[in-house]
Write a structure and sequence with these properties.
43% of the residues lie in helices and 19% in strands. The protein has eleven helices and nine strands. Helix 5 packs across helix 10, helix 9 runs parallel beside helix 11 and helix 10 runs antiparallel to helix 11.
């Protein structure tokens, strides 16, 4: 089994050495680590280039594309299994890679998603959101489960995901150019090609954010545009029901923990994200409807 890891970076000086050293200390060590750097203005490229097993792939910042850049890097890699991570993620333990690739023992599994755990210093509502979205369970599903799972059938995140090279190439790879959600579209493509997807709760990384309301709005405006543009491929699966379920569960958890201020902050974040999503869908429909 040969394994490649691909990490897109931009000004990742604060993260990259810690992340790569953690990957090199895994029980299953990757054969290569490709760092795709988009003209970082700090020491990211210099640090990465000096580390063991790292191949630095510099690209122009203006040509970065969530689907196209990842596709280019995968096709340049050598691994039978190709793992993607983001620069601000960090394996929780030394068994991350070992657990993430384990579901590939089933030859019909084409992609595996890992668990995201909020960093210890994350705000309480961010921790609750991660617990809701990323459980410790293990599961495998195929296209017949889409109706039952809804939008969750497509929730493979390139924050921490692995792909079987042969299945990826057979189905054409990531859509590009694309603003976001290249991973969900790849999941859809693999499911409808007859492959299975898997989620491994034992394969965990630390990953969380502290976004402003403006950032919540802007990020979800892009998501809304993407989901509207590709809604036929998602079989018109609605996100609203899943979003309501998440909001209810997180609010109840925060109330139980006595985090009343966090309830207000989370409600404001939900409002900003919902507004961004709706505006994004409206703009996409108006421009391309």
């Amino acid at each position: 089994m040969s394994i490649s890891i691909i990490i897109p970076t931009l000004n990742a000086e604060a993260y990259i050495e810690r992340l790569i050293r953690a990957l090199l200390e895994q029980t299953v060590v990757p054969d290569e680590i490709i760092v795709v750097d988009s003209e970082s203005e700090d020491n990211t490229a210099k640090i990465a280039a000096g580390l063991l097993r790292v191949h630095l792939m510099p690209i122009g910042r203006k040509v970065f594309d969530h689907g196209g850049t990842r596709d280019m890097a995968l096709r340049a890699s050598r691994g039978e299994f190709v793992l993607f991570m983001t620069q601000d993620a960090l394996p929780v333990d030394a068994h991350y890679i070992e657990h993430l690739v384990a579901p590939f023992a089933d030859e019909r599994v084409a992609a595996v998603g890992g668990r995201q755990v909020a960093y210890p210093d994350a705000r309480p509502f961010e921790k609750a959101v991660r617990r809701y979205n990323y459980s410790a369970e293990e599961r495998v599903w195929d296209a017949e489960d889409i109706e039952r799972l809804g939008v969750r059938a497509f929730l493979i995140s390139d924050v921490c995901a692995a792909y079987r090279r042969s299945a990826y190439l057979e189905t054409g790879g990531f859509d590009h150019p694309i603003l976001t959600n290249e991973d969900m579209l790849m999941a859809e493509r693999l499911l409808h090609a007859g492959y299975k997807l898997a989620y491994c709760g034992r394969a965990a990384v630390y990953h969380s954010h502290r976004f402003t309301l403006r950032q919540d709005y802007q990020r979800n405006l892009i998501v809304g545009r993407t989901m509207k543009r590709y809604e036929q491929r998602f079989e018109y699966v609605k996100e609203t029901g899943e979003g309501i379920g998440l909001a209810r569960a997180v609010l109840m958890q925060l109330i139980r923990e006595g985090e009343l201020v966090e309830c207000v902050c989370f409600a404001a974040s939900c409002a900003a994200r919902l507004l961004g999503n709706r505006v994004g869908r409206y703009l996409e429909g108006r421009e391309h409807g």
